[in-house]
Amino acid sequence: MNTTIQLTIDGMSCASCVGRVEKALHKVSGVTEVTVNLATETAIIQGSASYHDLVTAVTEAGYQVPLTLKQFGIGKMSCASCVTRVEQALAKVTGVVSASVNLATEQAQVNILSFVTDEQLEQAVTQAGYLFIPLNTDSKLNQTNKSEPFYSKAWWPVLGAGLLTLPLVFPMLGMLFGQEWMLPSFWQWLLATPVQFYFGARFYRAGWGALKARMGNMDLLVSIGTSAAYGLSLYLWWTFNNDQGMPHLYFESSSAVITLVLLGKYLEHKAKRRTTDALRSLENLKPVEATVLRLSKWQKVSVSSVLSGETVKVIPGERVPVDGEILQGKSHLDEALISGESVPVSKKEGDIVTGGSLNLDGILEIRTTNVGTESTLSKIIQLVEQAQGAKAPVQAIVDKVSSIFIPVVLLVAITTLLMTGIIFDDWTSAILNAVAVLVIACPCALGLATPAAIMAGTGTAARFGVLVKDAIALEQAKNIDLVVFDKTGTLTQGKPVLNEMTVINGTEAEVLQLAYSLQINSEHPLGKAVVDKALNQEIQPVTIEEFQVVAGYGVKGNIGNNSLMMGSSHWMQELGINLPTEQIKTPGASVSWLASQQADELKLLALFCFNDELKSDALLAVKTLQQEGIRVAMLTGDSQASATWVATKLQLDDFKAEVLPADKAKYIRQYQEQGYQVAMVGDGINDAPALAQADLGMAMASGTDVAVSASSITLMRSKPSLVPTALTISRLTYRKIKQNLFWAFIFNAIGIPLAAFGYLDPIIAGAAMAFSSLFVVSNALLLQRWSMKEK
How far apart are the first and last CA of the chain? Predict the structure, then answer.
């Protein structure tokens, strides 16, 4: 069916952009007509193409469609088939670009266009037979209300069904000793009926909803299977000749299966909550109140009402309520749950503090910078939530299997019933075997295998100061065999010190004044080192006109008719200056030259040598990676001598020096063409293209926002040793995914044939099914016990 779709397009700047977008959209299957308007920045598309395909086409053409990520809870899901059903319902909503539902977190993530409302999403979820639960209210998923009656508690169905089932199952123990403890038929029926239709009502409701949607799920299998055992018992009871003693009924089978499934779901629910421990720990760091200076006095207010620029007071024992800069006071802050750093950090006036940190021993007055959703803690929580709710690429295979799993199981059960009944003329055994097939084949374990491992893995990573943006990064990380580091600020401290200045023309004071005047507006670490040196000597700057940063080379500007240039050896050589490199005395120094040009006269004024210490854990990081069979390289815009010194100290496998910012991505691409799976680690704006080009981008959180946004993994501490930690956790997480999928499939591959041929009693099948779900979640939780000592 042809429809008209309107998309907002960001990033267009000229008529050629319009043509490029139109060309990209025309290639999408189902598009019949496209009109792109540069003035309104919109595209109007006629045809039957999906929003997902259209948005993908625009993105691949180099432009953006503004999307909003919505997260909300989904209630009443029971298995992987429910996930598929909810995703399909959400995908049908006009304006939904993509929908991902996570069984382990019981949450949905949808990318939507601006016109989609919460009411539309809620209606889609409700019509599919599930509950829509907003996450920004007190009805958060998994939240318990202590004041609710006992029959609404999660444990009540398990306890109630268990108490009624125990008298039905207990006589089976007597049979092992030749004792006949079986209850009369009436009492068996009286005990089994509440279990079947009161405690088991949830299976009927959810199963009926699945039937109406023409889909299958776990509840449908359980309800059909237990109803068959219950109905068979009624039939045998009513048709039994009382003169022959007591009939052999199967009420204990139907009741035990329901009880075991309820117990399994309860234990699974408890285990799944443990996978989100890291996220809840971060949520608990958020203070509720803050002490703010208003109207010349300190007032206790809600943290949500604190504005940027206000002054906040934090006393010992309190958590810092917002991101900010210390105006007054000094203290030690515990940032362990934010950065993963266990040692308290000393903070003084002028230092930056992060909301959620624990103030240990001093009174601090802080000027707020980032509040609300812009705070570091809020962004960390958002990243962890998104990662835990995301799907690994391997999940696509599981989703395909789940979509056909229930119909196949029903077919196997019907075949078992007919074959056993017709061939062996034993319809009682035929029904019981079919029931066992339905019960053992629950796809819960299959649906939980991947998300449970991702939640546990990303939570563990967050605990060590590693933030994983999405599940795709986990899969990429396991294949990395080459890690490329930026040098300044990544392998080195990023705080170079000017330790050698050689004057070639002029006096030391004149040369330092000119260099200071040029670098005072520079953000480069070498420029800041010059400024620090000049400030220590109380030198006054002169006015620089037409100041300009020459990317990858240095800075330049004018003083009257005199042009000044300060930058790399490469730049000076391009200008035609012969450099007296023999005057460089500091081994491995970063070098910068100051030159001037007046009329046609170009002369060298001075040589500056800077020393930037290696980070204390840089060698450990390199050695650890190399021991794991990963090659380590370095890309830097610094001089050949400086790069060689660092490479020798760290025993790197390869390095490139004097690399222009625009060329870093080119070198990454060259490594990839050689067959390497490359991870790039950086922290600066100039690293962003390389981070995006790499198979896996890893950015130091101390770096620029551009670098962090271009990366797939963010390291909360500026420590290279977190790189092998991130890769190790990623590999372990993916190993757990494969283990869980193996066991989920093996349970069904072995269990279904055994049940079909009569080797599994329905009760044993129910226990095995409950155990399989609990097993994959517990196996994933083993990730939370990992520590750096295990590497």
Answer: 56
C-alpha distances out from residue 135 to 108, 280, 550, Å: 10, 14, 48
CA-to-CA separations, 89 to 84, 86, 100, 401, 717, in angstroms, rounded: 9, 5, 11, 19, 41
Name the strand (E) or helix (H) holding 326: strand 324-328
Alpha-carbon span 478 to 729, nearest angstrom: 9
Nearest to 107 by CA among 69, 142, 73: 73
CATH, range 69-127: 3.30.70.100
* DSSP structure string for 160-212: HHHHHHHHHHHHHHHHTTT---PPPHHHHHHHHHHIIIIITHHHHHHHHHHHH
Q: Of the listed 486, 638, 683, 695, which one is catalytic?
A: 486
137 pLDDT exceeds 60? no
Q: So where are the chain's domains?
A: 3-60, 69-127, 307-370, 466-492+616-726, 497-611
Helix, strand, or coil (residue 7): strand
| Domain at 3-60: CATH code | 3.30.70.100
CA 474 to chain centre: 9
pTM, 2 dp: 0.69
CATH number of 466-492+616-726: 3.40.50.1000
* 679-721 tens-digit pLDDT: 999 876 667 778 888 899 888 876 555 556 667 888 888 889 9
Q: CA angle, 539 as apex, 535 and 545 as ends, to 5°?
A: 100
- Point out the least confidently predicted range of 90-104, 127-141, 527-541: 127-141
Closest to 717 measured CA to CA, from 286, 475, 470, 380:
380
Query: Active site includes 399?
Result: no
Question: 32-43: per-residue pLDDT in tens?
Answer: 999 888 777 889
Percent residues over pLDDT 90 in the chain: 26
Burial-class residue 511 by CB neighbours within 10 Å (0-12, 13-18, 19+).
buried
CATH code at 497-611? 3.40.1110.10
Q: Is 498 helix (H, G, I), strand (E, B) or coil?
A: strand
Distances in Å between the Cα of 579 and the Cα atoms of 563, 585, 606, 641, 672 are: 19, 14, 10, 14, 36
Dihedral of CA atoms 408, 412, 415, 417 in degrees, nearest 10, equals -130
**How would you classify the pairing of strands 352-353 and 324-328?**
antiparallel
Measured between alpha carbons, how far is 734 from 453 in angstroms, rounded to an integer?
8
- Determine the number of helices (DSSP H) and then strands (DSSP E) in the chain: 26, 29
User: Residue 601 phi/psi, 5° resolution?
Assistant: -90, 120
Coil, strand or helix: which one is 623?
helix
Cα–Cα distance between 441 and 744 in angstroms, integer? 10
- Cβ pair 770, 269 in contact under 8 A: no
- Largest pairwise CA distance in the chain: 125
Whether domain 307-370 has CATH 3.40.50.1000: the reply is: no
